């Protein structure tokens, strides 16, 4: 059976990144950049071994990035990328995989399909294969004073990506022989030693993070939109008013509940918790717990927002419909929207409050209580 190892190179300092944390350990969608790449290889069915090359100063950061994943113990890199790759390959020498894929740790958005294409090319007999992207922009050469010196033909010109795949023994021998430290990738090392390398289709989203702006652009690739719904009902009892969305509305009744019975905030809380798959209000605040007796329901909405933010998520929109005959909400609508926006710490434009009746039908139509439904739209890191 053919075996394939992945070698993830993370020994560089990333001086152009412009941050104190090396770019491979910067946060991306709630986890280090490098962890995304490590997960992609450790979860791929054709990758039998994941070896990393790191900087000596980054041992703890690597341990945090790889926590819970099946990885080989990392080895320390050298002064150049070429030296680091050679040291990583030598760490795999005892395993002797048939193929090895060398990947930059700063390319977090590596997809299984790209890995598949590189492995397929090697399985087909190629000594080496790399994913590439055609260049669509015009290419220009410039002088020392930034003047345009001429055009560069873009025919048959591509951008190289990683992972770059090779027959293991061939690549190891090529690195051990090659003394030209100016070569920028492993394909160049192989060609320097006289081996052919073929191109396979790359992925436009397989971007290498070089500067801080690249990280910000990359974040969208790791986010997804989710929808959560919430529904709650409370019946009327004796009293002098109800609290809806944190706003007290005088009337000749009150809503009965363990807390302040704010049906609007209860439904909103469940909608947000539902969007992130984090149970419901009854799970986190059980009605049997005396701690929450008569508690203000703003506490519950604040909790749901904390849970959302803990997952690196954000509330995009909250759409709430209150169903009742009384009280009339229109005089209080803006006050309720502002109250919810303040508790959730979002712009009021992200909160919609609507009210409707059931035309005298059902328990709400008979004036026995209030129902509320809420829909929360959130952006959060994509689940794997």
List the helices and strands and how they pair.
Blueprint: E1 4-10, E2 27-28, E3 31-32, H1 33-42, E4 49-54, H2 59-65, E5 75-76, H3 81-91, E6 99-104, H4 112-123, E7 128-134, E8 139-142, E9 148-152, E10 158-160, E11 164-167, H5 168-177, H6 186-192, E12 198-201, H7 212-219, E13 223-237, E14 241-244, E15 247-250, E16 254-255, H8 263-275, H9 281-284, H10 298-310, E17 314-323, H11 333-344, E18 351-356, H12 362-365, E19 369-381
Parallel strand pairs: 1-4, 1-6, 4-5, 7-12, 17-18
Antiparallel strand pairs: 2-3, 6-11, 7-10, 7-11, 8-9, 13-16, 13-19, 14-15, 17-19
Helix pairs in contact: 3-5, 5-6, 8-10
Summarize the structure.
By secondary structure, this protein is of the alpha/beta class. Helix content is 29%, strand content 28%. The protein folds into 2 domains: 4-210, Alpha-Beta Complex (Spore Coat Polysaccharide Biosynthesis Protein SpsA, Chain A), CATH 3.90.550; 222-381, 2-Layer Sandwich (60s Ribosomal Protein L30, Chain: A).
